[in-house]
Amino acid sequence: MRNLAIKAINLTKRFGKSVAVDHINFEVYEGEIFGFLGPNGAGKSTTIKMLTTVLTPSEGTAIVNGYDVIKQPAHVRQSIGVVPQEYTADEDLTGWENMMMMAGLYGIPKKVAEERSKELLEMVELTYAAKRKVETYSGGMRRRLEIAMSLISRPRILFLDEPTLGLDAQTRAAIWQYIMKLKEEYKMTIFVTTHYLEEADMYGDRIAIIDKGKILAIGSPKELKEKIGGDLVSLQTNNDELAIKVVSSIDGILNVKKANDGIRIKVRNGEEKAPEILESLVKNGIKVSRMSITEPTMDEVYMEFTGKRLRDEDASAQEMFAFRRTMRRART
Amino acid sequence: MIEEEKNNYSVFHGLWTLASRELKKWYKAPVILLLSLIQPIFWIGIFGKAMNLGSIFTGTSYNIPGLTIPKQVLDQIGLEILKQTFGTSDYFSFLAAGMLSFIVLFTSMQSGMSIVWDRRLGVLDRILTTPVARGNIIIGKVLSAVIRSLVQATIVLVVAILLGMTFYPGINPLDFLGVYAALFLMAFGLSSLFLMLALRVTSWESQMAIMNLLNLPLLFTSNAFYPVKSMPYWLKPVAYINPLTYSNGVARGLLLGISTNLGLDFLYLGLFALILSTIGIVLSWKYLSK
């Protein structure tokens, strides 16, 4: 059995009358990338803030690295690294000074701190800008510095709240390269929230879909895709009517439909079922001119569980900032 | 309220890191540093010199019509009036001593702004995830405000001396030490107060409003410009609550030799600093993690 890094037990947060996070339960295993996927205001950031002891849960609790976030917040803080959603480096200080400040806050001796800062800045390729004030950094550079800053204490779990928000596609890919490196080289557990489906799909070992404060589904991207009804097999034949009849009688077929360019078959484990389908069709004298198997996209998975497309909610970075500002005001 | 559990960090963990962060920003921005030096110089140089009551009473050519009172007598009367009112005939020095507390008040007040900015810029979110005790986040800021206040007060003192502030004869280094101790306590209490008020504030506009609401009343209900005994009866109790009254008392007592109850002054300032910083720490436990 794999060791648990995080366990949330009925974790709940209320802000006044509204419930931001509603009795959620989940487990994160050591050494995995756990993606928290959901639209804005779904409760992703609130969850991360409770797990990192910035917010106190209204109900329930979570165990992080074996420590209770309510009873042992200082121990939790000591054992984790956090990259918050906002840029949190001090703009008036240089990258290096920010690193050293973080080291001071974790009580790391100066000599060790200098070594680690050097190594980490090297890793995120910021050595050349270490002596520059952070206010001169670009968005991607700042995000990389944030990651380096949260690694100074060599945490066992790294929390990242929307690490790629507002960045261009290239920079987003680069940030993910660093995150993958941390997982592979340091065997770090990574808890990351995102509202980009492709990211969750590509990089997440397991994903939780959250909406309106509730977890709707948890599993690996593959499991989630299977859960919503398997793969899609598309066929072009010389006799579609007969083909539909034949295919419908095969065991394990979920659904067969006629489309304007052939027939569509929904089936679990499409790759294993396809030869069987082909065989029965040939046996019945039907010629198949074209066949394709497609896995459901994360988009479909998301749609299935939340009843809406995530893209509709995809706001520009500017709208996001305005949104976050309002949220922050609403909370105080 | 959640009590912080025992951990392997000392009580002071992170304090100096946080204080030095703010000090670094302060001394690394020469323009802001320069501006903050100009303000006290203006106050002491222009206000202090222009508001020179001494020149009204002495060395003038007034006389009472019909009576030819010798000038010497008039000057002597003027000096006696000043001495009776202010405890010294040197109003400039009286005011200069008061300016020390004044500059400490204005510098401490800024401390609240820094936490509002830290919150808005996200720096606070980051610090909250590190193993620094909540209370130390506040005390770190208090510490940096206290250090800045004392540096500013020193500049005011030097400028005042250059402009003609005179001490009582026989002044010794211990007197200065005492003045600094009093200013330290007041800065500690005042910056705790303004930080406390800023704990839940998210916009710098509201914090500015709070500061403006409190700064001049604090200044004018103290004995910075005039002694408490010349105040109307309803203002006196307010002046006796105002910590500036006590730090002014110490500064004037030790630097100018104006009689004051030093024991009471220090007791009040000590309690002021202790109580407000304690409340600040307790509230920061409560409000920094919501």
Automatic annotation (TrEMBL), chain A:
Write out the annotated subcellular location. Cell membrane
Which key words tag this protein in UniProt? ATP-binding, Cell membrane, Hydrolase, Membrane, Nucleotide-binding, Translocase, Transport
Give GO BP annotations, semicolon-separated: daunorubicin transport; doxorubicin transport
- Enumerate the InterPro entries for this protein: AAA+_ATPase, ABC_transporter-like_ATP-bd, ABC_transporter-like_CS, DrrA, DrrA1/2-like_C, P-loop_NTPase
Q: Which PROSITE patterns does the record associate with it?
A: ABC_TRANSPORTER_1 (PS00211), ABC_TRANSPORTER_2 (PS50893)
Q: Where is the ABC transporter domain?
A: 6-237
Query: Which GO-annotated molecular functions does the record name?
Result: ATP binding; ATP hydrolysis activity
| Gene Ontology CC annotation, any one | plasma membrane
Tell me which EC number(s) this protein carries. Answer: 3.6.3.30
Indicate how the chain sits in the lipid bilayer: Peripheral membrane protein
Annotated signal sequence is none
Task: Give the residues annotated as coiled coil.
Answer: none
Q: Which domain of life is it from?
A: Archaea
Q: Which family does it belong to?
A: Belongs to the ABC transporter superfamily. Drug exporter-1 (DrugE1) (TC 3.A.1.105) family.
Q: What is this protein called?
A: Daunorubicin resistance ABC transporter ATPase subunit
Q: Which organism is it from?
A: Saccharolobus islandicus (strain L.S.2.15 / Lassen #1) (Sulfolobus islandicus)
